[in-house]
């Protein structure tokens, strides 16, 4: 009767019971799924902690073991390791993989991966199937004949049998629809085989890891591009210099964000002088590398004019202010003169150079600090310091000593200690860069280093005389040049050299208020230079047949390989260079003549 009066009561009771059972089922499923979701969530903080490609792959493998598998191996396409885009392989042939990461539980520790680190491999049958189709592969229970599908060597198949490997999965690493590589997983005795649920979990994990791997690939490619541009803009080799042994080193930062902007240069100048430059654009990346290239080109052009370091920095400041990038840079410029064995040094906001004497004492050279170039705060001041034989001058950018954890001044002091304890023969740019690296820490800023050692005798011959400011200067200069060429066994060049010297000294007497010094440099070529106090630089002039003068520089231009002129403090220098015909080896050179009051042998 009751049921007849309320026919829906029985139905409602059944529905309530059904809902209760469904709720319990959903709750049970959620309880089983929740740990997996939490585990996948942890992957975002455990994988991709750095932007290093191989370390990211290793973190992926380590995270998978032992929660998902007893062992995991990550193989990436060779093109991905080069920073290039991956692809869906369509042939012909087979792709090249590199084994970049493996992880395994202790009982599988002796199981070697298919590929040997450092060599490419073509992948197993199931791996190639995954590459061609883009789909994951699952072997829930491995039969004896299946071992040939999951490994490419018979020895590894035997190892798997002995280890009790009974289940296998391979999943593609896809990011933005592009194949980067594959990850394979195995389980051994003591655990159940892989299921479709495990495969779905592996696919989700691989999807997350692939994004991190692709980010690391892109970051590494950017770093390589910046490093490639940076190195292309730096000198490829160090030229030969007079009485100076120069070594150089450029070390990029570990991260792409610390690359771009540091440069160095070594330039032979007329008269046997050498210009040494290091600079640092106060920025990083491709824009900084481009700015560095522009500033280095300007600096080289200015130094080829043989101007003093402080004037070069002042004009470099003007050029930097004209750049659209609105960037500033620090710079250190040094000019070595072999005649009096000295360095002329000026700096624009740059760390001072380090001088290590022949007996190992190290100290920073006291050079006035100017403002960085591009700020518009000029002028700059230069100092002149002796360069005794055996001493070493170290020029460097701040990346050599800068760290994230210690004070910059403390690192400068540490560099002093490092340079002082190094053996004289071992103190060169590369070894100093390695010795000064922070122990156990990656270099977070790039570093450029130049080390110049002053030599007692390097095979170059340099002599210099002070000439009288009288009409006898030309005759004295011709006689000195002729006698010196005789000592150098270069009598064949005497006629041309005497003519060149006579013209240069004559111009100094007529237009420069009298000559200063006469310098001769001999090695692969013969260089003659004369200084005077005149402000005007000589130029080749057009002459008529009736003109009595104006042909001196035309003769020099015709007879010599090249000639040039540049301003110096208090006047100018005019120089001319000749080839030495038939020079195949160096003959022993007798002592230099020494005429009191007139000639000074260097």
UniProtKB/TrEMBL annotation:
<dbReference type="InterPro" id="IPR003594">
    <property type="entry name" value="HATPase_dom"/>
</dbReference>
<dbReference type="Pfam" id="PF13581">
    <property type="entry name" value="HATPase_c_2"/>
</dbReference>
<dbReference type="InterPro" id="IPR052016">
    <property type="entry name" value="Bact_Sigma-Reg"/>
</dbReference>
<feature type="domain" description="PPM-type phosphatase">
    <location>
        <begin position="244"/>
        <end position="454"/>
    </location>
</feature>
<dbReference type="InterPro" id="IPR036890">
    <property type="entry name" value="HATPase_C_sf"/>
</dbReference>
<dbReference type="InterPro" id="IPR003018">
    <property type="entry name" value="GAF"/>
</dbReference>
<dbReference type="GO" id="GO:0016791">
    <property type="term" value="F:phosphatase activity"/>
</dbReference>
<dbReference type="Pfam" id="PF07228">
    <property type="entry name" value="SpoIIE"/>
</dbReference>
<protein>
    <submittedName>
        <fullName>Serine phosphatase with GAF(S) sensor(S)</fullName>
    </submittedName>
</protein>
<dbReference type="Pfam" id="PF01590">
    <property type="entry name" value="GAF"/>
</dbReference>
<dbReference type="InterPro" id="IPR029016">
    <property type="entry name" value="GAF-like_dom_sf"/>
</dbReference>
<keyword id="KW-0378">Hydrolase</keyword>
<feature type="domain" description="GAF">
    <location>
        <begin position="52"/>
        <end position="223"/>
    </location>
</feature>
<dbReference type="InterPro" id="IPR001932">
    <property type="entry name" value="PPM-type_phosphatase-like_dom"/>
</dbReference>
<dbReference type="InterPro" id="IPR036457">
    <property type="entry name" value="PPM-type-like_dom_sf"/>
</dbReference>
